[in-house]
Amino acid sequence: MNQLGKTFIHEDFLLHHEASRRLYHDYARDMPIIDYHCHVSPYEIANDRRYNNISEVWLHGDHYKWRAMRALGIDEAYITGEKSDQEKFIKWAAVVPYTIGNPLYDWTHLELKRYFDIDELLNEHTAEDIWHNVNERLQNSALSTRGIITQSNVEAICTTDDPVDSLSSHQALAKDSTFQTAVYPAFRPDKALQPTSSDFGSYIQELALVSDQGIATYEQLLSALEKRATFFHETGCRLSDHGLETVPFQSCTKEGASVIFEKALKGEFVSPLEEEQYQTYTLHFLGEIYHQLDWTMQFHLGALRNNNRRMFDSVGSDTGFDSMGDLPIARSLNGFLNSLEQTNQLPKTIIYTVNPIYNEVIASAIGNFSSNEMPGKVQFGSGWWFNDQKDGMIKQMKDLANIGLLSVFVGMLTDSRSFMSYTRHEYFRRILCNLVGSWVEAGEAPADYEWLGKMVQNISYYNAERYFNLPQL
Questions:
Q1: Global pTM?
Q2: For a designed S-S bond to 215, which of 59, 130, 208, 391 qualifies (C-beta 3.0 to 4.6 A apart)?
Q3: Partner residues linked to 158 by β-bridges
Q4: Where residue 134 sits, what CATH number does that domain have?
């Protein structure tokens, strides 16, 4: 209990004004969730995975928690190493009090409250009891993957899938009338855009196999990518995604890209300039396909990956050793979007940055490509990764509001591998309502709850519903 007699996670958590509380409780709280970008496993949803213990759903694969544990000097054996799940959980519990000020503290206790109805603070003293309590509750079908999704009021999920994926789990889910949440694939062809990768040749062979065609030429590569995009579309896909350090924008002809592709396929040296030229032409080609299919194209910009070589060699990628990059993006971003706009083939696009110094660059760039096709055709995406916290979300929304229109924003996504991360939508909605409510309290926005309530509902749900136009919704 705090000094007001409330538990840490209470009904007015993060809501500091009467206007904020009214907007959240009366308008935003009960809206369904469209989680249009995440990394959860469609296989686990199709098979309705059950968890043996809390570490399986909480700690396996969560590099946010791993980074916090490493920052406190915890031995890697308790993070990605050989210690038991219980030992890892106990060690994580001891770290939690040190995460005050980090969103992990809020997320941890939101998840304990929402899924397990636990009000106790997690620490080294409560860890043992909480471990046994939550593990007992995990045996209930309400906390299987599907149970978690259903009780979280999730209407649609878009996973992240490579063009070589079979999508068999998505196909099985589409035929399963017992599960009401729609699960769609999203097209992530990053590996086809990395001609300097040591795995490029083997990846192209894999793509050729699933495309049922040879890929010895660049023309055949483009054909295979288009064929896989068509297959994804038929399986319900309506979004693509690209992880890019910066937007590639170097003049390149199809013939030039062909030469670069053939060099890469032979294992020959490809220069940084050639790589960017190849990426520019290939990404432009994909953008035209996305426009034709009426997909949304997502760019996740700025991550500098695998910075600790020793740890990369030990535990691999996506384990918590990525950080913000600072390559310039303004000229290339505007140039690339314009290259598609010139022929009226710019698809709906969402641009995220891991580095908030580019917030205003992106917020101003999206205004260059507005369209009467729809409100907010090109979007500044929600605070992502290192910005996926209160200050980052507020900064993203304020920068968007100052330069563009917050009211047409398509809102939050989890970008998570955990099925318990849907509380991040609640976290976001509370922060959104508190921000707008603070404007009301300061006299900077009218106390017009009918209008403001509609606005926060749109940002929470309706804008995304209209924007993505997902099948079955």
A1: 0.97
A2: 208
A3: 184
A4: 1.10.2020.10
